[in-house]
Specification:
single chain; 5 helices; alpha/beta; 4-stranded antiparallel β-sheet; about 200 residues; about 30% strand
């Protein structure tokens, strides 16, 4: 299966932490010999898509476009990612505020454990991450069929912004989570008035 990186961007350019995340994906790819795809979920994000397509090592850029994705709301980005998530063995996001809001939602929907803040890739299912205010490093091994990972930028040198020539493909943007929540709240309110009342860790030696 293929590796997916969820790009952090502002609809105009790719955030620098995404380059480090692609670098982490490239290390995973060395173990599984698979391609790297990048998801750009946004609105009128042509410049960011073009930039993503040039990143070294990226084979395909997937574009989810819709007004509900313009602000990068975590629920909506996660919804877009979940439309394709089961096609991937590893899903990586930067360990930024953006990625840390998206990854847990994807992991929960897939019923897998999130692997946060990795700083090294040891194998296809094994990673290193810091603990105790970075005073210890633990090795984390996951048996989940899909690994949902956030990547600490300082652990990986960024890939080059130029040199790639990835294909670009559009995918479904998914529903607007905020609108869906509002409709659900309305139904609950109407009803209220109408009727009475798994992965293992081991310290690194």
């Amino acid at each position: 299966m293929t590796i997916l990186v969820i790009a952090e961007h502002d609809n105009r350019s790719i955030n620098a932490a995404t380059l480090n995340t692609v670098a982490a994906a490239a290390v995973v790819a060395m173990f599984v010999d698979e391609d790297i795809h990048v998801l750009v979920a946004g609105h009128n994000a042509g410049d960011a898509v073009e930039e993503a397509s040039k990143l070294a090592g990226v084979v395909k850029v997937l574009v989810a476009d819709g007004p509900q994705l313009a602000a990068g709301l975590a629920e909506n980005v996660a919804t877009a990612a979940l439309n394709i998530a089961k096609d991937y063995s590893h899903i990586l996001t930067p360990a930024t505020a953006y990625g840390k809001h998206i990854a847990p939602r994807i992991a929960a929907s897939l019923d897998v454990a999130q692997i946060p803040d990795i700083t090294a890739v040891v194998g296809i299912d094994t990673f290193e991450r810091p603990l105790y205010a970075d005073n210890a490093i633990v090795t984390v091994q996951s048996s989940d069929p899909i690994k949902v990972i956030t990547v600490r930028a300082t652990g990986f040198d960024p890939v080059a912004r130029e040199g790639g020539s990835a294909a670009v493909e559009k995918i479904e943007a998914g529903a607007d989570a905020a609108a869906r929540r509002a409709r659900s709240s309305h139904r609950i309110g109407t009803s209220r008035w109408a009727s009475p009342a798994r992965f293992s860790t081991s310290p690194q030696k």
